[in-house]
Design a protein that fits this description.
It contains eleven helices and no strands.
Length: about 290
């Protein structure tokens, strides 16, 4: 994707190109933020290919087991990964549904977790924060009783005639249905989960974390973005922190093997939530809603 830089291009020019590309990306996304929030049109960050995906992704994350001797602090009650995993796990109720209040609480912790990873996640977490806030307004609003769970929300919005026509973006993205907003968050969750899983399980001597997360971007989001955005993202990933730094941020004060295992467990939790949500949306014919 893109044209390789000529080896004779001065390093000074390359160093200045990365922040300029990132700035161009952020300005582009700010100017089109409303359209980005509305669906899978050009510039939308929260879309993945829906052509012929499996109903659910094959469970891959969590393949690395944490040490049985002592659980790392990052997975504990005060650890960043632990704070993120608990509400997401709690969102998976025994009835096969997704509790929206816990799902959104998990998303807030995920945004906090991703923010220190660098500018490449700045725009993604900004959009996710906007969607989380919009959906929370419904969960805690006058119709809160209808927004307890994903299944209850979809059923009520369908009865009330609030669902948009599939593939047709509303004029005012702030007025999107809760079901549409959830679908956009659901797609963003897939990119986050895939990136974290690859950081946790990448082989020594193999592709670095930036290359793996960029590949996840290309698989999940890139096909829906204009060439300019794709190139800016590609350059931004060149300044992405190395795997060691990411593991240190995810699980500070632990050995690499323990940090990898902890991050793999966290990615596994995100994958479980993704699969549950994917199944519920597919059963209700809503994967093409946005």
């Amino acid at each position: 994707m893109g044209v390789a830089l000529h080896p004779q291009v001065p390093r000074r020019w390359f160093r200045h190109t990365i922040p300029l590309a990132i700035l161009a990306l952020l300005l582009y996304l700010c100017a089109r933020s409303l359209r980005s929030l509305s669906g899978c049109g050009p510039g939308a960050l929260s879309c993945i290919t829906e052509g012929s995906p499996p109903l659910q992704v094959q469970q891959q994350s969590g393949s690395l087991e944490a040490s049985e001797r002592e659980e790392p602090q990052c997975l504990g009650p005060q650890g960043m990964l632990g704070r993120m995993m608990r509400p997401f796990r709690a969102s998976l109720n025994s009835k096969g549904d997704v509790e929206l209040s816990q799902y959104l609480a998990g998303w807030r912790e995920l945004i906090k977790f991703l923010s220190p990873f660098g500018s490449i996640f700045a725009f993604a977490t900004s959009e996710a924060f906007t969607k989380v806030t919009a959906l929370e307004a419904r969960v805690h609003g006058p119709d809160a009783a209808q927004y307890k769970s994903l299944a209850a929300m979809v059923a009520w919005e369908r009865r009330a005639g609030l669902l948009e026509q599939p593939g047709i973006a509303p004029r005012d993205s702030a007025g999107s249905s809760g079901s549409r907003t959830t679908l956009l968050l659901h797609r963003a969750l897939r990119w986050s989960q895939l990136c974290l899983h690859r950081v946790a399980t990448g082989a020594l001597g193999g592709p670095d974390a930036g290359e793996q997360c960029n590949d996840a971007y290309g698989t999940v989001l890139g096909p829906h973005h204009p060439w300019l955005v794709r190139q800016a993202v590609r350059l931004a990933f060149l300044s992405f922190p190395g795997r060691g730094r990411l593991l240190e941020l995810a699980c500070p004060g632990t050995r690499e093997a323990e940090a990898r295992a902890a991050l793999a467990r966290a990615a596994g939790t995100l994958e479980e939530v993704y699969n549950r949500t994917q199944g519920l949306l597919a059963e209700r014919g809503l994967l093409q809603l946005a």
